[in-house]
Amino acid sequence: MKTSVKPQKNWIGKHIASYKYAMQGIWFAFKNESNMSFHMVAAVGVILTNYFIQISRTEWLITLIMTGLVFMAEVFNTALEKLADRVSQEHDPLIGQVKDLASGAVLIICFVAVVVALIVYVPYLV
Fold first, then answer.
1. Residue (of 119, 101, 15) closest to 62 by Cα position
2. Residue 18 lies in a domain
3. What is the tens place of the pLDDT at every residue in 3-15?
4. CA–CA distance from 16 to each of 19, 20, 24, 26, 28 (Å)?
5. CA-CA distance, 95 to 100, in Å (whole number)?
6. How many CB atoms lie within 10 A of CB 36?
7. What is the spatial distance between Cα 117 and Cα 66, in angstroms, rounded to a whole number?
8. In-domain check, residue 69
9. What region does 93 belong to: left with phi over 0, alpha with psi -120 to 50, or beta?
10. Are 76 and 102 in contact (CB under 8 A)?
11. Residue 79 domain boundaries
């Protein structure tokens, strides 16, 4: 008896499609969340500052990681808000707490990013 392993149907196409969906999510966040525009302006500022003051490779990595974490937190926050709104449009204290927690996470990483920026940039500017 011959046994064969069936290849997954069109797994490459599904994988490529997942990138399309991810990009749609990122685009949605930029179109619908004003904070994403603020974060983008800050990210451009970080990149320009890094370039002009010629920070080290390690400092580049740290500032880019922090920038990515801020964007990631904002996208997660947006996803949780959309899901919570889908669950209930009515005022629900528990959903309110979930939204507050998610936005609090964004605030925490933004605060840490500012502290990291001060640690990285102040020695160059003083």
1. 119
2. no
3. 666 556 688 888 8
4. 5, 7, 13, 16, 19
5. 9
6. 19
7. 9
8. yes
9. alpha
10. yes
11. 34-125
Contact by Cβ (8 Å): 66, 112: yes
Q: Is residue 120 domain-resident?
A: yes
pTM of the model: 0.84
In a domain, 3, yes or no: no
For position 102, which CATH number holds?
Answer: 1.10.287.3610
Number of domains in the chain: 1
The answer for residues whose C-beta is within 8 angstroms of residue 33's C-beta and 6 or more apart is 74, 78
The 10s digit of each residue's pLDDT in 80-119 is: 999 999 998 899 999 999 999 999 999 999 999 999 999 9
